[in-house]
Amino acid sequence: MNQRKIIIVQYDPKYAEQTVKMWRISKERAIGQKESHNLESHIYFLNHILPQQFQVDLALMEEKVIGMIAYNEKEINQLYVHVDYQGIGIGQLLLNKIKAQSSGKLRLYTFEVNKNAQQFYEKNGFKVMGRGCENEENLPDIQYEWNME
């Protein structure tokens, strides 16, 4: 892990633009598809829609958003790490925090094309529960579930 301090904080709208830009680039790299929503509507989603059902936390390094996770006690809705900071444990840091405060069971979906995410979740004890294609990207996805042993 980088020598500079990484902190996890509850989402604050002052980080909206940074968060959404990081999210969009990370997602595009992961699935090979540009975001269909414009920046403003994506920021609106982050600030007003997502928080209705999910807590949003950010991983920050020196006030720079390098990761985000949206979750509740049973589900992870979003987990993205800045493309320049992938593979150094930020996703693990976020996931460990959520697992510790979960109900003991978590579910999530990831895109079938996102092999890195699949490896990450499977390494962390998530099991495939189903497959489908019910997302606005119209890409095949995989439903995962983790149970506390």
TrEMBL record:
One Pfam family linked to the record: Acetyltransf_7
Origin superkingdom: Bacteria
Domain (N-acetyltransferase) ranges: 6-149
Gene Ontology MF annotations: acyltransferase activity, transferring groups other than amino-acyl groups
InterPro entries: Acyl_CoA_acyltransferase, GNAT_dom, MshD_Acetyltransferase
Gene3D superfamilies, A to Z: 3.40.630.30
Protein name per UniProt: N-acetyltransferase domain-containing protein
Organism: Pseudoneobacillus rhizosphaerae
